[in-house]
Write a structure and sequence with these properties.
- It is built from 8 helices and 2 strands, in the order αααααααββα.
- It is mostly helical.
- It has 2 domains: 157 residues, no CATH class; 48 residues, no CATH class.
- Strands 1-2 form a two-stranded antiparallel sheet.
- Strand 1 and strand 2 form a beta hairpin.
- The longest helix is centred in the first third of the chain and has 31 residues.
- It starts with a helix and ends with a helix.
Length: 207
Amino acid sequence: MGKAARRRGFFWALSGFLFTVAAGTALHFLWKWTGQNRVAAAFSAVNESTWEHMKLLFFPAFLFSMIEVWFRDSSNFLAARGLSLWVGTALVPVLFYTYTGITGVRAPWADVAVLIFSVATAFLLDLCLRRTGRFTSGWQQAAGLAALWVLALVFVLWTLPPAPAASVLGCCGGSLRNPFVKLFGKHPLKRWRFRGLSLDRRLSTGV
């Protein structure tokens, strides 16, 4: 890869980082700005749960990727971007529960730092993967594209109104149920306990 290509790659990575952070910040308030619109709820945060904060990273980066793909000639773009966004999105809950588990408190500035660090990691990983020139086969590109769309659909399908505060893995109250419960009539996974709170409730409430 020549210097010009490396500069273009860095430019796109930096642009993606800045766009995702800015758009993710806006999505944090979009649902309320639109009067709790159902369409906006699918892509923006409807409460302060960790799950909803994962959407603040994924959807701006997903939109940026759908635009960027038309201007890039990288043969491994989709595979690299699919993997990097999965890693970046997964970092949000990992870092959140790490710092809250250590400190015992939740701080807004720390939540912002988690988002920024996760976004930076995603685009840095994407840049490194594409510079390796690996993951260029057709099935790997298809897998990367599928990974992006699957995660997008999961976020949309599992977005529920904040009252009752239904969780990602199960319903903590009210009559709403996630796709697992709709399909199987009960939750297929065991409820894990952590410091007196079940894992599904922690994911829903972020506490």
